Amino acid sequence: RDTTEWSETWNFRCVALGIDNPGSISGMSVYPAPAKDFVTIRMKNSINNAATIKVLDLLGKTRISRDVQVEAGLISNFNLGTLPAGVYMLLIEMNGSTATAKIVVRR
């Protein structure tokens, strides 16, 4: 059965996403899990730059927002302060890129 008369022809252009960029912050890991007072954040790339870290609760409320310095792709001993036990999203913004990771805080 000929279907050429059913609708217009649609043309799509595919764009590649997820290609590693030397300045990107993909491949972020956060440990220990679960965390208590501090976490260490390690990036796949050895980046040196200023960044902003936000910790958001699951309702999207910013619980911590702090400017930090990334050295060799590492942020060590990021203080969680008096954050109550629970599940949070850690968001890091640097050079126009953003990465997120889930963290669990156990007191």
Detailed description of the structure:
- The protein is an all-beta fold.
- 0% of the residues lie in helices and 46% in strands.
- The chain contains no helices and seven strands.
Task: Label this structure with key terms.
single chain; 107 residues; mainly beta; four-stranded antiparallel beta sheet; three-stranded antiparallel beta sheet
Layout of helices and strands, plus pairs?
Blueprint: E1 29-31, E2 38-42, E3 49-56, E4 62-70, E5 74-79, E6 86-94, E7 97-105
Antiparallel strand pairs: 1-2, 2-5, 3-4, 3-6, 6-7
Largest sheet: 4 strands, antiparallel
Element-by-element helix/strand order: EEEEEEE
Strand content: over 45%
Radius of gyration: 20 Å
Across the major sheet, the strand order is: 4-3-6-7
Unreliable spans are: none
Mean residue pLDDT: 86
Q: In angstroms, what separates the terminal alpha carbons? A: 66 Å
Estimated helix fraction: under 10%
Structural class: mainly beta
Shape descriptor: elongated
Put simply, the count of helices is 0
- According to DSSP, the number of beta strands is 7
Short description:
By secondary structure, the chain is an all-beta fold. The protein has strands spanning 29-31, 38-42, 49-56, 62-70, 74-79, 86-94, 97-105. The strands form two sheets. Strands 4-3-6-7 form a four-stranded antiparallel β-sheet, with no helix packed on it.
